[in-house]
Amino acid sequence: MPDSSHPLRKLGFLTIGLFDGDDPRPGHESTLRVIELGEQLGFDSAWVRHRHLQYGISSPVALLSAASQRTSRIDLGTAVIPLGWENPLRLAEDLATVDLLSGGRLNPGVSVGPPMRWDEVKGALCRSPSSTRTTSRSSPTSRPGSVRPWAGDRRADEAVSRACRSVHR
Description:
Strand content: 5-15%
Number of helices: 5
Low-confidence stretches: 131-151
Distance between the termini: 46 Å
Strand order of the largest sheet: 1-2-3-5
Structural class: alpha/beta
Order of helices and strands: EHEHEEHEEHH
Helix content: 25-40%
Radius of gyration: 20 Å
């Protein structure tokens, strides 16, 4: 409890967003409206949680970019972005862009622990080094049925391949 001789100077709030798995758009829109309302009510900051593989805010950086265009004063923060899921260069560029668009109001929070549920999804992202299956267009990260949004980008394939090798060590 803060000492009463030192009054609270700033007040923020955290929202995880409320989402319907069949239609997530209204959840993102309501989260943006909550941030707008927070600014109108005089809150100093709004924080959003990253919710990989769960219903919620799948991309807090993109959401805060939208929020930065609907607000003018409230600080915007992430609580927290798990770095284990992120491409560091892409994340740095995205955070810098949102900070510029918001006029310097972004407060990124990050975590460095292992990604939650990694064991459940790594098979879809990384081919086991012991696997001997190959095809003429195979890469170290390809496997039948896997989704690779970066397919065809040699540098992205190499980066994912390096990441997968480090996970399998």
